[in-house]
């Protein structure tokens, strides 16, 4: 009877080992079983990519809203009662025009008056003896965004910020980090120059949490996993076949993963199956 137990135990152990081996190799392109799945990329929908090397920034992405500290429009005002030239003034900007600091806005008599800030003209009001130019002062504007409270210990006013709008990216700085948590989020206010947008406009915010120099990295979505570990599908360009290249993940960021891999593989092509 004891002998029978030993035999049954041996059979069960063998079957378990076989199942584990089959699972580990069922998608292994070096295994003959892979031919049942199609080891060639010719008839597959896939994305081709390479391993990147360089400085990778761990960036938290969010949506920001352009806001303003101003409660009303700013105004340039001139008294024309002592101006005797004809005409008394000449406008160089009209309603709707944007201007930057030092732009000539108007000539009063023979004197050019330059903008003292960045702005946009909203209205021009004239009388016999006065001229008023109402404008939006862009220096009063800032971008407001929300970040998870878990990131609060990782940021301060020295963190790099990128603001993107209409496929243009601007460098920005953090001006204020709120001290109140609302629904697990904290408000951050960001100052950006030359972003001439009206209050209420939405922009993309990229808050750099940390930089990783000399990093090997790939999109996190392209990393595969089996019972052996994590790997990438490496493409043989001549045959169209793929093999598994096992890698170690050093750090998972929001969109990319930093991995350990030999520099030799920077010249290799990899694929990610989409089907």
Summarize the structure.
By secondary structure, the protein is mainly β.
Structural notes for this entry:
This protein is mostly beta strands. It folds into three domains: 24-56 and 214-273, conserved putative lor/sdh protein from methanococcus maripaludis s2 fold (Beta Barrel), CATH 2.40.420.20; 58-67 and 140-210, Efflux pump adaptor protein, beta barrel domain (Elongation Factor Tu (Ef-tu), domain 3, Beta Barrel); 74-139, OB fold (Dihydrolipoamide Acetyltransferase, E2P). Helices cover 9% and strands 49% of the residues. The chain has one helix spanning 2-25; strands spanning 46-49, 52-68, 74-79, 89-91, 98-99, 104-108, 111-114, 119-126, 130-137, 141-148, 161-165, 168-177, 185-192, 202-219, 224-225, 230-235, 242-252, 256-260, 269-273. The strands form three sheets. A six-stranded antiparallel beta barrel has the order 2-10-13-12-11-14. Strands 3-9-8-5 form a four-stranded antiparallel beta sheet, with no helix packed on it. A hairpin with a 2-residue loop joins β6 (104-108) and β7. It is elongated. The chain starts with a helix and ends with a strand. 15% of the residues are buried.
Total domain count = 3
Q: Kindly state the mean pLDDT as a whole number?
A: 86
Strand content: over 45%
What structural class do the secondary elements suggest?
Answer: mainly beta
User: C-alpha Rg, in Å?
Assistant: 32 Å
Major β-sheet strand ordering: 2-10-13-12-11-14
Spans where pLDDT lies below 50 across 5 or more residues:
25-38
Please give the share of residues in helix: under 10%
Number of distinct helices: 1
Q: What CATH architecture of the largest domain would you give?
A: Beta Barrel
CATH class of the largest domain: Mainly Beta
What does the main sheet amount to? 6 strands, antiparallel, barrel
The 3D shape can be described as elongated
CATH topology descriptor of the largest domain:
conserved putative lor/sdh protein from methanococcus maripaludis s2 fold
Query: N-to-C terminal Cα separation, in Å?
Result: 53 Å
Order of helices and strands: HEEEEEEEEEEEEEEEEEEE
Number of strands: 19
């Amino acid at each position: 009877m004891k002998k029978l137990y030993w035999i049954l135990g041996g059979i069960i152990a063998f079957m378990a080992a076989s199942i584990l081996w089959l699972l580990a190799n069922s998608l292994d392109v070096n295994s003959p079983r892979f031919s049942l799945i199609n080891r060639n990329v010719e008839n597959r929908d896939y994305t081709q990519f390479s391993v990147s090397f360089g400085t990778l920034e761990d960036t938290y992405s969010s949506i920001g809203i352009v806001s303003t500290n101003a409660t009303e429009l700013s105004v340039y005002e001139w008294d024309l009662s002592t101006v005797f030239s004809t005409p008394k003034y000449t406008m160089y900007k009209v309603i709707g025009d944007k201007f930057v600091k030092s732009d000539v806005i108007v000539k009063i008599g023979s004197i050019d008056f330059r903008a003292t800030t960045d702005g946009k003209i909203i209205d021009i009001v004239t009388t016999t003896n006065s001229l008023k130019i109402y404008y939006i002062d862009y220096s009063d504007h800032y971008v407001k965004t929300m970040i998870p409270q878990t990131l609060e210990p990782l940021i301060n006013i020295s963190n790099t910020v990128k603001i993107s709008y209409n496929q243009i990216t601007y460098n920005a700085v953090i001006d204020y980090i709120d001290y109140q948590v609302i629904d697990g989020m904290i408000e951050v206010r960001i100052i950006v120059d030359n972003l001439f947008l009206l209050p209420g406009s939405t922009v993309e915010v990229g808050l750099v949490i940390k930089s990783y120099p000399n990093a090997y990295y790939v999109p996190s979505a392209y990393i595969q996993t089996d019972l052996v570990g994590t790997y990438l599908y490496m493409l043989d360009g001549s045959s169209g076949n793929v093999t598994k290249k096992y890698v170690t993940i050093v750090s998972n960021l929001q969109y990319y993963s930093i991995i350990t891999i030999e520099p030799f593989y920077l010249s290799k092509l990899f694929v990610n199956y989409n089907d």
